[in-house]
Specification:
By secondary structure, the chain is an all-alpha fold. The chain contains 13 helices and no strands.
């Protein structure tokens, strides 16, 4: 690809990360009033009409029966946990802290790719993983500051999101795209619907509208990621996800009076450097058999931010490409 194509891809990815950050700001604003369960439920409910229209493009896939039912079930469970955990973390922690912890996902993907994909990870990538996890400890500071449920929720979201991503890499080549897109959404709707009566609070119409904004922004961000990867090389586009920390810092400062402390800044630098090294290392010929981090394509998957490679398959009406 030419430099112009890579520049376009990078710019599209930067805009996508800005859209995702705005999505998270709305989640945080609603989190002051409502449980993460209620936010996820209504975000899933309001996403259904949009996704249903998208699925009409994939008429070749009439069956909803998974070809890999246990992997699909595990991915669905992971996606449900990821969504409610991430939304809770955004509601209770400074935006920058949540992003820094979620940035550990590429490190976790590298580890999980060993047992699930049979990926071979050599010493240099192991060193990057270890350094990156040290960065997570710097941010969370166990023993030096009180760890909240929000910190745990953010890390659980990173672990479950990484697991869901690696599962797609394992089964994505022959699993139906409609299954990969629809099952997590239905799983979120059912699980959150069962829990909703215990946490429900009545909503004014403007808050319901904000729930719809979350659904729309999540899908717009995912579409922009698709366009970014079509325009530029993955090794150029993938690192743009780290720009979310800039959006988070700006939004946190101006809207929520949040000021990242030194430990968060240092930890972010360590984690981002480790993640970038892994991305560039995977891009080298022969260094990685599956490129699990590069092919994650986007940020942690939730009910409102479906995996971009799956969404792209549905839009193209394809049934057999690798995710």
């Amino acid at each position: 690809m030419t430099g112009a194509h890579n520049l376009r891809g990078a710019i599209l990815a930067l805009v996508a990360m800005g859209v995702f950050a705005t999505h998270d700001v709305v989640v945080k604003a609603l989190g002051v009033h409502y449980s993460a369960v209620q936010i996820v439920f209504f975000a899933a409910l309001l996403s259904f009409p949009i996704v249903s229209v998208i699925l009409l493009n994939d008429a070749s896939e009439a069956s909803l029966r998974p070809r890999h039912p246990w992997w699909v079930l595990l991915r669905t469970v992971c996606t449900v946990i990821t969504g409610v955990s991430a939304f809770y973390a955004f509601s209770t922690l400074p935006l920058a802290q949540v992003y820094v912890i979620l940035f550990s996902s590429p490190l976790l993907i590298t580890i999980l790719a060993i047992p699930i994909l049979g990926e071979r990870v050599r010493a240099r990538r192991w060193a990057a993983v270890i350094v990156g996890l040290i960065g997570v400890l710097i941010v969370m500071r166990p023993g030096q500051s009180a760890l909240s449920v929000g910190h745990l929720a953010a890390f659980v979201a990173a672990v479950c999101g990484a697991t869901a991503s690696v599962i797609v890499r394992r089964i994505g080549s022959d699993e139906r795209s409609v299954v990969l897109l629809l099952f997590p959404m239905v799983g979120n709707f059912l699980a959150m619907g069962l829990a909703l009566p215990f946490v429900y609070r009545a909503m004014p119409v403007e808050h319901l509208g904000m729930m719809g904004v979350i659904a729309v922004l999540g899908l717009i961000g995912s579409f922009l990621v698709i366009l970014a990867y079509r325009a530029g090389e993955a090794v150029i586009v993938a690192p743009m996800q780290y720009s979310q920390i800039l959006w988070a810092t700006a939004y946190g400062y101006f809207l929520f009076n949040e000021r990242p402390d030194m430990a968060t800044g240092i930890g972010a630098g360590v984690i981002i450097a480790s993640g970038l090294y892994i991305v560039f290392r995977e891009s080298r010929i022969g260094a990685s058999g599956h490129q699990p981090v590069i092919e994650t394509r986007g940020r942690t998957e939730t009910v409102t931010t479906p995996r971009s490679s799956v969404l792209q398959r549905v839009l193209r009406g394809r049934t057999d490409p690798t995710s």
